[in-house]
């Protein structure tokens, strides 16, 4: 069984035999090296998940030397901690997205979820809390600002808004 960290080789557009559009061609390499400050390597593109090393190798080929992997719920925050342990080009951010907080609360799971986020945030390669910004684009800011909930571990980390 494939888990979320199982690598899938990066495939060039049209090379997977499925007839899907695939990824666009890589851009020209950047003139200076950069870091991607907000990415979600656990989000699949179409049905395809690209392995962490393959995604970072493709980014490095065009001048992106590393990235901040951002968790937005418990599952993706757990993935983030596993990912930063797997590849030294990654740092991480963990959180519950404000849009998801009401659902955790409705299930009676918000306190436990925030406690787990706090524990994950204590990992030395987790350097920010995010995503935590209120979503005015999709839900007009009707989520809960979980970043406003104080905790010992999260109070010293910056926010990775998104
Ligand atoms: Zn994001």
The domain tally reads 1
Q: Averaging pLDDT over every residue, what do you get?
A: 79
In CATH terms, what is the fold-level topology? TIM Barrel
- The count of DSSP E runs of length 2 or more, i.e. the number of strands, is 4
Number of helices: 4
| Helix fraction by DSSP (H/I, runs of at least 4) | 10-25%
Strand ordering within the main sheet? 1-2-3-4
Which structural class matches the secondary elements? Answer: alpha/beta
Question: What's the CATH architecture name?
Answer: Alpha-Beta Barrel
Low-confidence stretches: 6-13
Question: How would you describe what is shown here?
Answer:
It contains four helices and four strands; from the N terminus they run E-H-E-H-E-H-H-E. With 162 residues, it is of the alpha/beta class. It has a single domain (34-156), classed as TIM Barrel (Alpha-Beta Barrel), CATH 3.20.20.140. Strands 1-2-3-4 form a four-stranded parallel β-sheet. The two termini are 32 Å apart. The model is unreliable at 6-13 (pLDDT under 50). Zinc ion (ZN) binds at residues 38, 40, 70, 131, 162.
């Amino acid at each position: 069984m494939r888990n979320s960290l199982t690598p899938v080789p990066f495939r060039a557009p049209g090379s997977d035999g499925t007839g899907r559009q695939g990824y666009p061609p890589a851009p020209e390499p950047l003139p200076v090296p950069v870091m991607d400050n907000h990415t979600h390597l656990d989000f699949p593109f179409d049905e395809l998940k690209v392995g962490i090393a393959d995604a970072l190798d493709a980014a490095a080929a065009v001048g992106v030397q590393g990235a901040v992997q951002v968790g937005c719920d418990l599952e993706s925050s757990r993935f983030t901690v596993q990912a930063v342990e797997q590849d030294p080009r990654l740092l991480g951010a963990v959180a519950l997205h404000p849009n998801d907080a009401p659902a955790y609360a409705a299930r009676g799971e918000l306190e436990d979820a925030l406690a787990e986020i706090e524990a994950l945030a204590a990992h030395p390669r987790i350097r920010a809390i995010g995503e935590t910004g209120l979503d005015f684009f999709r839900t007009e800011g009707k989520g809960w600002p979980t970043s406003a909930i104080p905790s010992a571990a999260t109070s010293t980390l910056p926010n990775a808004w998104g």
